[in-house]
Task: inverse folding
């Protein structure tokens, strides 16, 4: 039986997020477990007049690759991949897991090698997106594995996923347009500021954002969405932050991360669990120890941690920071094969000052 919410989601993704036009080349990529959403999105993109093709993944191939590939194979990038990135007009990525821990047993160094090898592909993808040549969006298809990580039943998780996307509203696209307007006011305000200082029991951190653009993320690239982000000045981050939730990357979970920054770079890093993996990722390349992103989570309909960064970085009342690659459209210039988001809860006993003025307290802007 078809879930009518999937058809509604496909409509929003194709028409609101990607804004698909007749004649465009559209790629839809996702694992086979997400087939019901892949089919609905394919149907909707065809109806919009696009030329559509799919890349459907098979469970177990990533684990097989990382465990058996030679170092030469780990470093190899197919020219077909590069040509694809240069050719597509729109890209819909669907995330869904058979097993969220399938790569836990992979040696961190092998993942680091692959990340470094794909850096140029990631850079070119983001560059085309920043120029408006490539529209992309990523979304979540609910599975048992993801529901288990979130400590919910599948039915509860489906309601959570579709609710966070405002798909329970009579007109979800109109609802997201309202989100865009509300967040735009905050983004424009922040573009008048130079230095932000975060203070609280687990954070004493200063980032500079003067001259950088704040991006209003309201469902165009992530769905669901609800954040504003920028690329901080690369040489100016200083201080300490202890991240409130586990940071998950490549199927590995690292808990209790504390980072100390000087002149923009991580100079000390510890973790209660997974410290070896953390250090391996910090040494992926020269840009991995610098922040490529700083963001405020503004989706107050998302209130709980689910071990899925698509939702967790949007939790209303949090900030998140990504080590590694910056999004060029922000003005950020840091490049890396890494982009690892980590979340700091700001909902109690915290404040943010902008150029000395308190603008945010206990998870909410004071505008």
Result:
């Amino acid at each position: 039986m078809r879930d009518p919410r999937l058809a509604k989601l496909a409509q929003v993704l194709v028409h609101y997020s990607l804004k698909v036009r007749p004649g465009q080349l559209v790629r839809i990529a996702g694992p086979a477990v997400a087939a019901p959403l892949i089919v609905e999105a394919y149907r909707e993109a065809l109806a919009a007049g696009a030329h559509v093709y799919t890349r459907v993944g098979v469970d177990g191939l990533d684990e097989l690759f990382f465990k058996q590939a030679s170092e030469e194979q780990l470093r190899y990038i197919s020219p077909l991949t590069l040509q694809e990135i240069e050719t597509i007009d729109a890209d819909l990525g669907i995330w869904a897991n058979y097993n969220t821990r399938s790569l836990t047993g992979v040696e961190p160094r092998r993942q680091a090698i692959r990340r470094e090898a794909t850096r140029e592909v990631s850079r070119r993808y983001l560059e085309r997106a920043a120029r408006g040549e490539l529209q992309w969006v990523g979304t979540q298809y609910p599975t048992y594995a993801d529901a288990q990580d979130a400590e919910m039943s599948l039915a509860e998780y489906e309601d959570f996923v579709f609710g966070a996307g405002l798909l329970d509203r009579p007109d979800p696209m109109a609802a997201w347009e309202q989100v865009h307007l509300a967040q735009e006011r905050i983004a424009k305000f922040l573009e008048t500021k130079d230095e932000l200082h975060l203070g609280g029991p687990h954070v004493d951190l200063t980032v500079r954002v003067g001259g950088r653009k704040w991006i209003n993320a309201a469902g165009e690239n992530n769905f669901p969405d609800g954040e504003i982000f920028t690329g901080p000045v690369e040489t100016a981050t200083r201080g300490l932050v202890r991240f409130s939730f586990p940071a998950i990357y490549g199927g590995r979970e690292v808990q209790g991360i504390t980072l100390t920054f000087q002149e923009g770079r991580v100079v000390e890093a510890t973790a209660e669990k997974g410290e070896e993996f953390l250090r391996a990722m910090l040494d992926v390349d020269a840009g991995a120890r610098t922040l490529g992103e700083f963001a405020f989570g503004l989706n107050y309909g998302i209130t709980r941690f689910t071990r899925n960064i698509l939702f967790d970085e949007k939790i209303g009342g949090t900030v998140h920071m990504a080590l590694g690659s910056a999004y060029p459209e922000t003005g950020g210039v840091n490049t890396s094969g890494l982009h690892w988001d980590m979340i700091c809860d700001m909902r109690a006993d915290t404040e943010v000052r902008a150029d000395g003025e308190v603008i945010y307290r206990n998870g909410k802007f004071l505008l």
The domain at 4-164 is CATH 3.40.1830.10 (Thermophilic metalloprotease-like). Residues 18 and 170 are 21 Å apart (CA to CA). Residues 172-190 form the longest helix (19 residues).
